[in-house]
Amino acid sequence: MPLSIAVIGSGMAGLAAARILKDAGHQITLFEALKGRGMDSHSIDFEGGIIDSPLRVMNPKLWANTLSLATSLGIQMYPVRTFMSCTWLDDDIAADQRETWLTTARLPYLNLPVIKNWQGFQWKKVKQYTAPLAKGFVQYQAALNAFFKLPEAEQNSMSLAMFMNRYPIEPLFWHGTVMPVLYTICTCDAQAMSNWPAKPLLIFLQQLTKGEPLLRMHGGTPALVEKLIKDIEIISGAAVTKVFKQDDGKVLVENAAGYRAEYDRVIVATPTKNLDFLDHQQFAGDIQLVQGFKFAHGELVIHTDHACMPSDRKDWSVLSYHMDRQFNRQAFTAWLNGLEPTLVGKTDVFQTWNPTFPIDETKVISRVHLTRALVNDQTVALHRELDRRHLQSNRKVFFIGSWSCDGLPILESAVTSAMRVAEILGAHAKFKGMQPVVQVDPNLGYA
Q1: Number of folded domains in the chain?
Q2: Is residue 110 predicted with pLDDT exceeding 50?
Q3: pTM higher than 0.85, yes or no?
Q4: Which CATH number is 26's domain given?
Q5: Same domain assignment for residues 238 and 342
């Protein structure tokens, strides 16, 4: 029997839930406080090209549900190369004189990772960089093998800090190349990363080091959102102000514009700190549980300032990392023109996360403040308790979001949590397991 369902929030989780439930025959109303859609609210048209904010590229195994959902909607993917460069962030050295100590590539046939700029190294450089990196890579592989031979309970209980203490790895390799990648994906600081469960991060790293190309959606996030919201009623531009369970079993939803309606079920897909609309007496336990999840905050700066890249253009890579020599400060930049075909040939444009060096304000296009769910041993227990509550008979209100799975990757957690609640409501995701349709875009020179 079709249900009337209100979905509050149009981020990835809310949109995925709305799409799955709509396709299963339910009546869906999507509420969004913004005038547009939450998922692509920060996307920008730049010189006729697309700037996704934040940039989204996905590994087909780690983002399996997200890519399957997009594929089911007819969106094609294209592969992108995410090579990296690493530059020392020395405060006493001018930006155009900083040393880029590593740039990477892959052998075209064997698909093995290689150092791209080794030709310029003298013996001193080989001893300083190449030898420690090679040693670290061997130690890293040995550590992964040892970790995955441990009993599953021991794997699940080990934090990243515990892993690092148990398996020493050459600092230049671990802090100079591995941790920056994790910072890119998890967008949080070193302290938060150290408390993260090691297992999902190590699985993530294993997949990335296999060399499988990351995928990006043709048309970017706006194309996905357009497909997700097709034929779904959207009430936007006013925040929801009240969610109240009535005696007749219906759930009343009101918003700031005076809209008022009753629903069989409500799915809350807003940030966990924005729950003032829930009746505090009826939902006291749920509010306390969901607000137990912790978040990191940061700023994504979209700009055209070349200071975020290596001084020599031949060292430019899609991902550029700056770090001090003690690895206490990290900043990473994505060069969007190398990833988005509609930006090829346009002005160089970048996204820098939490910049640790000045960016010319005259070259800033926008600043976006983002939050990111953190994961630790406490959040695992919270996930289990939330799932237990969702399974209670006659449950009316559900909670989903990027925070509600293991948190890695963010979009995948959002989609997976939407799939889980939809399944509880009897709507199974028919797209699960669909393989992405990949089409090389010649504008990026991938082929």
Answers
A1: 2
A2: no
A3: yes
A4: 3.50.50.60
A5: no
